[in-house]
Design goal:
By secondary structure, the chain is an alpha/beta fold. It has one domain: Rossmann fold (3-Layer(aba) Sandwich). The protein contains seven helices and nine strands, in the order αβαββαβααβαββββα. It is globular, with a radius of gyration of 24 Å.
């Protein structure tokens, strides 16, 4: 009796799920070797990216297990003739709760360290790694772009990245991505006890590094991706929060709250670099920044 009730509930949930996806115009993402998810803060791009990392990694595991199994069937006695393949791994720039996780190192994408076949590589906020300002970086211009261009030939796996805007990604990488999925309006669905979410999807075609919104009809209704939230936490949505721990507290009167006497403003936030900051940029980033002495901005 209890089993029948559980099955009936699962069927009802499934039918409700299908009806909701049809009613909202659910969008289906096409899996490709190189995938990019973009969108503003809190639009679900990293959530969707990590979900596909785990999903596609399982696909690679099944490939390897089938291959190793048939090697045993083909050579049941002579073990020396068997060709064994290691299980694929998840190389990620952010920690992912998986026993297959390996921190992504610069030597992986620069082809100094070999990666396992059928593995998945994930770079969150790739604009911080290879932005449009890295146009003249030889590692990006020659090595990284070749790594992504021939990723299927090298590993036969999947390369997934995220960023807040396609324009942040350096053109050498952007040219390798045929279709970019831009997300907006992320929302958990109370109807499914907040275990499912929707996010608006806009496919963006990238041709010769130029992004074009892929709309066949301007009057076409907006499409939404409808997916489930993982039962366990796969990643920390604020994984970079420790970078802010080094920012010192302000102990002067400038940071003390007060009620203003007027609602008029007479200044803008001044970001002109000081000589000390210019020296920092020169030392850390290697940029030749002209001195501000005797010059006006």
């Amino acid at each position: 009796m209890n089993s029948a009730i559980i099955v009936s509930v699962l069927i009802c949930v499934y039918l409700l799920f299908k009806m909701f996806t049809i009613a909202t115009g659910a969008y289906k993402i096409t899996v490709s070797t190189v995938m990019a998810f973009c969108g503003g803060l809190g639009t679900g791009k990293t959530l969707v990216g990590v979900n596909y990392v785990v999903k596609l990694h399982r696909r690679g595991l099944r490939k390897v297990k089938r291959y190793n199994f048939f090697q045993k069937v083909r050579h049941p006695i002579k073990k020396a003739k068997r060709k064994h393949k290691d299980e694929p791994l998840i190389y990620s720039s952010i920690p992912i709760d998986s026993r297959y996780y390996v921190p992504l190192h610069r030597n992986h994408v620069l082809k100094k360290w070999r990666q396992r076949e059928y593995s998945v590589t994930f770079i969150d906020e790739i604009g911080q790694v290879a932005s449009q300002w890295d146009f003249d970086n030889p590692n990006v211009k020659y090595i990284l772009q070749e790594y992504i261009r021939l990723y299927r030939h090298y590993l036969d796996g999947y390369f997934i990245c995220t960023d807040q805007s396609p324009d942040n990604i350096v053109v050498y990488v952007r040219r390798r991505i045929n279709l970019i999925y831009n997300f907006n309006r992320f929302k958990k669905q109370f109807l499914f006890l907040n275990r499912f979410f929707t996010t608006e999807v806009t496919p963006i075609e990238s041709v010769e590094g130029v992004s074009n919104v892929n709309l066949t009809n301007k009057g076409e209704e907006k499409k939404y991706l409808f997916a489930w939230l993982p039962i366990r936490k796969l990643y920390d949505s604020r994984c970079y929060s420790q970078l802010y721990d080094e920012v010192p507290e302000c102990n002067t009167d400038d940071s003390k709250p007060f009620r203003p006497k007027t609602l008029k403003a007479n200044h803008f936030v001044d970001l002109k670099p000081t000589d000390e900051e210019l020296e920092y940029f020169k030392e850390v980033y290697g940029y030749k920044v002209p001195s501000t002495k005797g010059k006006k901005y």
